């Protein structure tokens, strides 16, 4: 990855929590304006505040449902290896999405029309649901497509790591430890990864497990901090820590773990927590409940 891309990603990370919801707010506002004007022109005799209200209530409910939909996709991810099992859940999800969208916006419209003392005819529920469902399926798919495309772009720029497969045992060597004539064998150590293969921008390279500074839970991924760079590995933090050497790696927070050899300084904070300053200059939060782990280390 070029220095320009690395610099851009580093500068972008602090703004992600603002940019990501801001993108959806902008999209929904533009959709509100364009659709309300188009509807107003089509109806001609309807005052503009009515199509504006219709679109505002609809887009508000969609905006509230977007985080729910993103969380739902994380629970039932749409990948090639999970598509067959999770696609039925998403088909059901389109129905629930439409129902919540429809009920929410109708309640909001009822409140506004009652407050304005204006009549409001919502029409038969079954007819309205059929009409809205066709639009909501499109919205559902477009939202997921945007989220997955954005996630894939960041993944390609940031780099995705995977554990290398363990080497096959030599031919003729028994697999059962009982045949080793008194030699002590620790099968669990053979599953500890020593290296990771990282794919980034059509390039592949190896990183050493001992070079990992810290780890952070990021949804379905674990973020690996290695020599000043961040890579993602598809795993949960709990599962991945079980594969690392507990003498070197320890959990220090609900969402963070560190390489104990890479801690440069422990800075206590108010309330009993701490900040860990790593040798690469980064900082990692340490919860009070995990301070004993550092003392033991």
UniProtKB/TrEMBL annotation:
TM stretches of this protein: 21-41, 53-72, 87-108, 137-154
Domain HTH LytTR-type, residue spans: 196-297
InterPro entries, A to Z: LytR-like, LytTR_DNA-bd_dom, LytTR_MHYE
Sorted UniProt keywords: Membrane, Transmembrane, Transmembrane helix
Keyword hit for Transmembrane: yes
Gene3D superfamilies: LytTr DNA-binding domain
One Pfam family hit: LytTR
PROSITE patterns: HTH_LYTTR (PS50930)
Coiled-coil stretches noted in the UniProt entry, renumbered to this chain: none
A molecular-function term among this protein's GO annotations: DNA binding
PANTHER family: STAGE 0 SPORULATION PROTEIN A HOMOLOG, TRANSCRIPTIONAL REGULATOR-RELATED
Name used for this protein in its record: LytTR family transcriptional regulator
Annotated source species: Hylemonella gracilis
Lineage: Bacteria, Pseudomonadati, Pseudomonadota, Betaproteobacteria, Burkholderiales
